[in-house]
Design goal:
mainly alpha, single chain, 2 domains, elongated
Length: about 130
Amino acid sequence: MVKVEDKLINSLEQRLSYLKNISKNKTDSKVLQGYFETKLNRVILDYFLQNQMFNTSRVFSQETCIEVFSNIDIFIETYEIIEKLDVVITEEGNHFDNEASDIKANKLKNTAIDIALGWCNTYKTKL
């Protein structure tokens, strides 16, 4: 866990340093041009991530040197959790019958909650 936290702290320090540099040099046209290019690249990266284009996201962030501004690993883990929840819901939903539907619905909710709580426990220091 310390390794993950160190990575996040390093990322935050780099982001803060970048913003301080922009703030100090906001009248420099080259600095502003770089800022707007980086901002555009971050919007593009967010599009890739929101559309589960994770390999493309990694390559794009490396090629445009915006890795420090990305949270690709968190997007991937979140997507994997959502995928697991969808599988559980689909599998359990297929087994519902009228007589035991309440019991099975509760089992489904508990399984989904266990998966979500596991994710929360992993990231509790960041939430």
